Amino acid sequence: MVSGRGVSLIFRLALALALLVGAAAAARPAELVMFEQAFCEWCEAWEEEVGVVYDKTDEGKRAPVRRVDIHSQRPADLRGVKRIVFTPTFVLMENGAEVGRILGYPGEDHFWGLLDRILKRLPGEHRESAALAARPGQGKEKKK
Q1: Residues 56, 39, 118, 27: is their CA dihedral positive or negative?
Q2: How far apart are the C-alpha atoms of 137 and 140, rounded to whole Å?
Q3: β-strands 31-36, 89-94: how paired?
């Protein structure tokens, strides 16, 4: 038989474990949600210029892209996102909350700068992004 003190210790350990498991389940990593639609030429341009390398970049590792069609039923975890009108619209999410957004696709060079700006709003992102140098085709001078 377990003494009262033993039961108390077991209860405290079980409670601590439950809190840790609950906190881990509630914490969701950052993701970049791309709201898109069929026949969107700017969505296609993003896919051709950025989408093909995004997953390999530091930004892609920090906030993987998730594509959502604006005409489909919105997933439950994105119902709190304010109205989406234009495509593409990129919404940076963390722990179920919107951190920032990019409306439209202004071209590859501008996109990376805008993304870097909103990624800095994430906890632990107080440094300049070193990813520009790591991206294919970036940081190279043109030969004359």
Answers
A1: negative
A2: 7
A3: antiparallel
- Where are the domains positioned within the chain? 31-134
Q: Which residues of 26-60 are buried (b: 16+ CB within 10 A; e: fewer)?
A: eeeebbbbbbbeeebeebebbbebbbeebeebbbb
**Cβ–Cβ under 8 Å, residues 34 and 103:** no
Per-residue pLDDT tens digits for 69-116: 999 999 999 999 999 999 999 999 999 999 999 999 999 999 999 999
Is residue 120 over pLDDT 90? yes
Q: Which helix H or strand E contains 33, and what residues bound it? A: strand 31-36
What does DSSP assign to residue 2? -
CATH code for the domain defined by 31-134: 3.40.30.10
pTM of the model: 0.70
Q: Torsions phi, psi of 2, nearest 5?
A: -90, 135
Helix ranges restricted to H, the chain: 4-26, 41-46, 52-54, 58-62, 108-119, 131-134
Residue 94 CA, distance from chain mean position: 6
Give residue-wise pLDDT tens across range 36-76: 999 999 999 999 999 999 999 999 999 999 999 999 999 99
